[in-house]
């Protein structure tokens, strides 16, 4: 992993290390809950390597998007802002299925099934799901 990060500027290496340190306990706990210790340890190493590779690719290939991601970390509540148009949730966890979601949210006008929808890059550089690839279930 160190060799992957070596070509990055020091601040980008430090950013990765800080993020890894922040989320490592959650990763370890999640893997430890479902895998044997030796399997969890192998997965931890593999996942850390994949995360490092993704970080390098993101900050070198798309520096504008990397900057936008940094700006967004200063807005942890941005998905709750009134200017946001919608939100995402796992239907099975929030209401059992899509019909349950529609019943639980009376103001909801549409529920989308996004399984299989591929993200695409939008004008602002962010990756989002294309609404034309989604199945929209409109409430009466």
Task: Please outline the helices and strands.
Layout (H helix, E strand, L loop, with lengths): L1 H4 L4 H25 L2 H25 L1 H11 L17 H4 L3 H7 L5 E4 L5 E3 L5 E3 L5 E4 L2
Model description:
With 140 residues, the chain is mostly helical. It is built from six helices and four strands, in the order ααααααββββ. The chain has a two-stranded antiparallel ribbon with strand order 1-4. A two-stranded antiparallel sheet has the order 2-3. A hairpin with a 5-residue loop joins strand 2 and strand 3. The radius of gyration is 19 Å and the shape is flat. The model is unreliable at 131-140 (pLDDT under 50).
Q: Name the poorly predicted regions.
A: 131-140
Find the count of extended strands (DSSP E, 2+ residues): 4
Classify the oligomer.
single chain
What is the straight-line distance between the termini?
52 Å
Give the strand line-up of the largest sheet: 1-4
Please report the number of helical segments.
6
What helical percentage do the residues reach? 40-55%
> What is the C-alpha radius of gyration, as a whole number of Å?
19 Å
